[in-house]
Specification:
With 884 residues, this protein is α+β, with helices and mostly antiparallel strands. Among the domains are: 197 residues, Immunoglobulin-like (Sandwich); 102 residues, Aminopeptidase N, middle-beta domain (Immunoglobulin-like), CATH 2.60.40; 132 residues, Zincin-like fold (Alpha Horseshoe), CATH 1.25.50.10. It contains 26 helices and 33 strands. It has an 8-stranded mixed β-sheet with strand order 6-5-9-3-2-12-15-14, with no helix packed on it. Strands 29-28-31-26-25-33 form a 6-stranded mixed β-sheet, with no helix packed on it. Strands 17-18-19-21-20 form a 5-stranded mixed β-sheet, covered by helices on one side. Helix 3 runs antiparallel to helix 4 and helix 14 runs antiparallel to helix 15. The radius of gyration is 28 Å and the shape is globular. It comes from Oxalicibacterium faecigallinarum. Belongs to the peptidase M1 family.
Length: 884
């Protein structure tokens, strides 16, 4: 077992660099096994620093030569240890030349410069640039870049980097060159390089100012017919940012490049966004409605980073949510606006909250809990988390809730006016929002500095004599690692009141002159009471409308209250929420019963009838009905239990789905028939909503696992003209005992074996099927199409099983945990970032039954005792084992 402990980096220890880099010139001679990189940078002493040493960082580099102001430095003139290069100097101005040698074809970490399918790509966020050259690789060091690329013209006909193409030509020896210049200062993490055999779709558009810009989407040969949606999404993103925030594309050219080997979803490198193929390639044959939506969101996200992340960036990595949380909020708003209807916006909001609850709330309650602005880390890659992104987006959304849409825009305008071209902190964004609107947001800072999900308990009192209705809100927040006691948050709680007919009351909040149907209560103390006047009858409260804050809200609703809200609430989110609360109550009760030996599970006619009303309400959009009839996930139910029993949860949820399928079979069949989408496939929101409801009906009917259900699924699978319907039908078959399911799976693979993204779906469907155990996953790993080195393929099979098939992963014999340990260790030797993400699958081990805990702990210790474990994985496993 390794005894060395990686150092912990603390936000409080931040100090500015001793030198600022002003310009960077780089030359690359591209060879897969020996790429030579020549870097010249000009530096200027930071007058606020007393440090007499220039510090640069490098990893897995062969240092060829260093020249300082034209003089070659011998090894005694600098110190190089553990990837840190220190050069003593007191010069005010420096020209530093560094030559390094790389082996991109052996770089399986996919960080820095690497080779994928014979082409060169880079990924430099967060600290990948140090795998290219020695550099002060930190986000507050911003410089302009000029980059010369040279390579074999036949092997690498396309040479791309950030910014604008200045010059290109032949070198006369079978090689050619391209010179790129980025006119905007940027940190090194935004550097990008792509070289290889690629083709592009391009369009020229006119920006709002009248200037023209060239847009390009680059892909490998054979994928050009899958780029139109990405191009349309890019154009829509540009138009939306111009209209919503007055932000225009600032370069003459904007490029997207797709690569199949990529650790993340995409990367916002200035002017040269590099994407996982999963978020670029789409046509009706290979992509589902969800894929189309994800591509639109991710293309938007990376484009929006051009301003919120690139033009204004982070002072240090602790401020990561400054760009990521803000940009997730922006892409959520963009996607909602692209749908264009109130119902569509509501469905998008519900989807976002479901992700938050299923992934971020558990993170906030586990050993890896951290504030939106962390105070420390060992490996920054471990903090690209749902807390930074999704909770960070909720924090930004609360500004808009508190200040209004116009007030939020004023804050954004001031933010860019003050900080364009700078590396700043989360507090600078908060100050811009505060100053632009004349609001004191001092207490709001706690959303950045305190971890955990606040708990808000609501109680109400109606006074029939005085016609008042009092709502008392009490907040608290559980202890999290390193933070035992929490101060009160500034929590916006949007509230409506419904009369006995289900209509919104006009609200008169004591002390406020406005009369409206929804009021935002600002909870800032541990406990506050808000009084509404002129309330003619006792209402049913609609609390936390539109999920106005990322909190756990508790209120003693009766089942009748929830059914009433489910039927009448004008707030679509709370209408959905009421149904989820009803279903969760039933699932928790069934889970408790399932844990009792010999107990019999029973049906709930009241819940069935409530869901029947929603299913058959033609006034509701199909997309909303689909999402309303989806039961809370096993993960969400697990989070509401003190001790998690995965088998009992699975048994309860499956029983409830089967009961609903039996009770509503005729209704589901009718919904299936009524929501067909004949004609050519279109991913528009209305059509996608119909397919979603139709396929939800199919999934419920398939729970009955009888011959009629098998025929329905098989018929759809055979006749589907789009990937959405085919995958839905194949998933229904994979979870059934249908005699034709193996043949259907084999046929699917045969039809799409040349489409990597579809093969990923094939692996994932099988990994999450309820009959798939560890032995079946091991067998799938032997398939010729499986490779542990490709992150998408590893995620499609191993991650899908460990995170998406809880009843099998948590098998009582511990076989799932032993498998998990093997794969974490194997992945860590190839790609530490991917391994560390898989390691998170067991970080909540202390919440499970003792018989499972002991086996989880043993698996964690097995990983912890592995020699040469990366600091990425070591941090996650160490925190998981240390948590109390």
């Amino acid at each position: 077992m390794r005894t060395d402990t990686p150092p912990t980096i603390y936000r409080k220890d931040y100090t500015p660099p001793s030198y600022w880099v002003r310009t960077v010139e780089m030359g690359f001679d591209l060879e897969p096994s020996a790429t030579r990189v020549a870097t010249r940078m000009t530096l200027e002493r930071n007058q606020t620093s007393n440090d007499k040493v220039l510090t640069l960082y490098g990893e897995e580099l062969q240092l060829v030569q260093i020249r300082l102001n034209g003089k070659v430095l011998g090894t005694k003139a600098y110190q190089l240890k553990d990837g840190v290069l220190r050069i003593p100097t007191t010069a005010e101005q420096i020209t530093l030349d560094i030559e390094t040698l790389l082996q991109p074809d052996r770089n399986t970490s996919l960080m820095g410069l690497y080779v994928s399918n014979g082409n060169f790509f880079t990924q430099c966020e967060a600290e990948g640039f140090r795998k290219i050259t020695y550099f002060p690789d930190r986000p507050d060091v911003m410089a302009t870049y000029k980059v010369m690329l040279r390579g074999d013209k036949k092997k690498y006909p396309v040479l791309l980097s950030n910014g604008n193409l200045i010059e290109q030509g032949d070198l006369g020896d079978g090689r050619h060159y391209a010179l790129w210049e980025d006119p905007f200062k940027k940190p090194s993490y935004l550097f990008a390089l792509v070289a290889g055999q690629l083709v592009c779709q391009e369009e020229t558009i006119k920006l709002k100012s009248g200037r023209e810009a060239l847009l390009q989407v680059w892909v490998e040969e054979g994928n050009l017919d899958k780029t139109q949606h990405a191009m349309d999404s890019l154009i829509n993103s540009i138009r939306w940012d111009e209209e919503r925030f007055g932000l225009e594309l600032d370069l003459d050219r904007f490029m997207i490049v797709a690569v199949g080997d990529f650790n993340m979803g995409a990367m916002e490198n200035k002017g040269l966004n590099i994407f996982n193929t999963k978020f670029v390639l789409a046509n009706p044959r290979i992509a589902t409605d969800v894929d189309y939506g994800n591509i639109e969101a991710v293309v938007g996200h990376e484009y929006f980073h051009n301003w919120t992340g690139n033009r204004v960036t982070c002072r240090d990595w602790f401020q990561l949510s400054l760009k990521e949380g803000l940009t997730v909020f922006r892409d959520q708003e963009f996607s909602a606006d692209m749908i264009g209807t109130d119902s569509g916006r509501a469905v998008k909001r519900i989807d976002d909250v479901r992700v938050l609850r299923q992934a971020q709330f558990p993170e906030d309650a586990g050993p890896m809990a951290h504030p939106v602005r962390p105070d420390s880390f060992v490996e920054i890659s471990n903090f690209y988390t749902v807390t930074i992104y999704e909770k960070g987006a909720e924090v930004v959304r609360m500004y808009q809730t508190l200040l209004g849409r116009d007030g939020f825009r004023k804050g954004m305008d001031l933010y860019f006016e003050r900080h364009d071209g700078q590396a700043v902190e989360c507090d600078d964004f908060r100050a811009a929002m505060s100053d632009a609107n004349g609001r004191d947001l001092t207490q709001f800072e706690r959303w950045y500095s305190q971890a955990g999900t606040p708990r808000v308990v609501a109680t109400t009192v109606y006074d029939a004599v005085h016609k008042t209705y009092a709502i008392t809100l009490k907040q608290s927040c559980p202890a999290t690692p390193g933070q035992k006691n929490k101060l009160p948050f500034h929590i916006p709680v949007a509230v409506g009141l419904l009369d006995s007919n289900g209509n919104d009351m006009q609200l008169h909040l004591r002390g406020f002159p406005q009369v409206q149907s929804t009021v935002v209560l600002e909870l800032m103390e541990e406990q506050q009471t808000f009084v509404f006047e002129d309330v003619s009858e006792e209402p049913v409260p609609s609390l936390l409308r539109d999920f106005s804050a990322p909190v756990n809200l508790e209120y003693d609703y009766s089942d009748a209250d929830l059914a009433f809200l489910m039927a009448h609430d004008s707030d679509a989110f709370n209408r959905w929420e009421a149904g989820q609360r009803l279903a969760a109550r039933r699932l928790l009760a069934l889970t408790a019963t399932a844990q009792q030996s010999g107990a019999v599970l029973t049906t709930d006619p009241a819940l069935s009838e409530s869901l029947r009303l929603t299913l058959n309400d033609a006034a509701l959009d199909p997309a909303f009905r689909e999402i309303a009839l989806n039961l809370p996930s096993e993960t969400v139910i697990a989070e509401q239990m003190d001790v998690i029993n995965p088998q009992a949860i699975h048994q309860a949820r499956r029983f409830l789905r089967q009961s609903l399928a039996q009770a509503l079979r005729a209704d589901f069949i009718e919904a299936y028939k009524a929501n067909q989408t004949p004609g050519d496939y279109s991913p528009d929101a209305a059509s996608a909503g119909k397919r979603a409801l139709k396929n939800l009906a199919l999934s419920y009917i398939s729970e009955l696992d009888d011959a009629a259900a098998h025929v329905m699924a098989q018929t759809q699978c055979d006749g589907a003209d789009n990937m959405t319907d085919r995958v839905a039908a194949l998933g229904a078959l994979a979870n059934s005992t249908a005699p034709g399911k193996e043949a259907a799976l084999a046929q699917f693979y045969q039809d799409f074996e040349a489409e990597p993204l579809v093969v990923d779906k094939w692996f994932s469907l099988q990994a999450m099927a309820r009959t798939t155990d560890v032995a079946a996953v091991r067998k799938l790993m032997q398939h010729p199409a499986f490779s542990l080195k490709n992150p998408n393929r590893a995620r499609s099979l191993i991650f899908s099983f460990c995170n998406g098939n809880p009843s099998q992963f948590h098998a009582s014999d511990g076989s799932g945990y032993a498998f998990w340990a093997e794969q974490v260790i194997a992945l860590d030797a190839i790609n530490p970032q991917v391994a560390a993400r898989l390691a998170r699958s067991l970080d909540r081990w202390r919440k499970y039954a003792p018989s499972l805990q002991s086996k989880m702990q043993a698996a964690l210790k097995r990983v912890a005792q592995t020699a040469k474990l990366s600091k990425d994985t070591k941090e996650v496993v160490g925190k998981s084992l240390a948590a109390e």
